[in-house]
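FORM 7B: Structural annotation worksheet

SECTION A. Query
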Amino acid sequence: MGMDLQNSMNSRFGVGLALALGRITPEIIGYRLAASVADLISARRSSRIVRAVRANQWVIAGGKLTPQQLDRAVRDTFRHAGRCIYDHYHHIYNPSALLDMVAFSPEFERRAQSIKEGKTGTLFVTPHLSNFDLMGRALALKGFNIQVLSYADPRSGYKEQNRLRTVGGFEFTPISLSALRRATDALHQGGTILTGLDRPEKDPKYRLEFFGRLAPLPVGHIRLALKTKVPITAVAAQMRPDGTYYLLATDPIPMQPYPDPVEEITRNAEVVLRVVEEWIRQAPHQWLMFYPVWPEVINEII
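SECTION B. Predicted structure
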């Protein structure tokens, strides 16, 4: 039953319902409705999605949360997710209102200028932090042409989400050999690529240290950076106290060479993850990762 909940949320029907409600519901009602749905979901402690969030929140808090604190952390995470979904869908077809909700950090503005000059390729990596969908839409509206390397073999709901994400110019390409070849060519030609770095892999070849524990996280972005000699720029969205969203960015992170290829990938990947850890610590309930990054932890907590 727990997996049914997650499948329903990510189904074409679930995405379509969220879009419809988001577009027609006024903010005062939309925010309350989103919070109510979030509370219903987070109360289902036996569902897989809730167990995953509990485990993830427990780890990033250093394993120091009481059961009551952990319940609140999970509730706040789902409430934030609901707020982000509502904001994204409510403004998806209203560009001026959407842009009023976002602001860009000085670090990102510097990277934006470099992209516009087109001197070198740009490889963005991002965690599932706050309203990454809305920020992506804002980037498209600002004129960025970005190829997004997305989750391979997406189901119907993810396909629908990706279709909505392309409103404005982004190109979503599920990760495959052909998509990676295109990304490599784009980086060599001064293009811009974006991909995630915190969704756990089912059959990992590497386990990376993340919040003090080994996690089965992807390393494709590191391979791509090493192959093309393009530095990585980490980006992420954070909601500010006034309800607007702020796009964080690092300066370019060059890949460091090591004699051993496994060490080379692992060490470079963990350098990027250290930055992401700090961003998540600043707003733990805004980390919207609904898959267990540390599966073994699920059975360690109540």
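SECTION C. Observations
The mean pLDDT is 85. Residues 2-94+288-299 form one domain.

SECTION D. Sign-off
Analyst initials: ____
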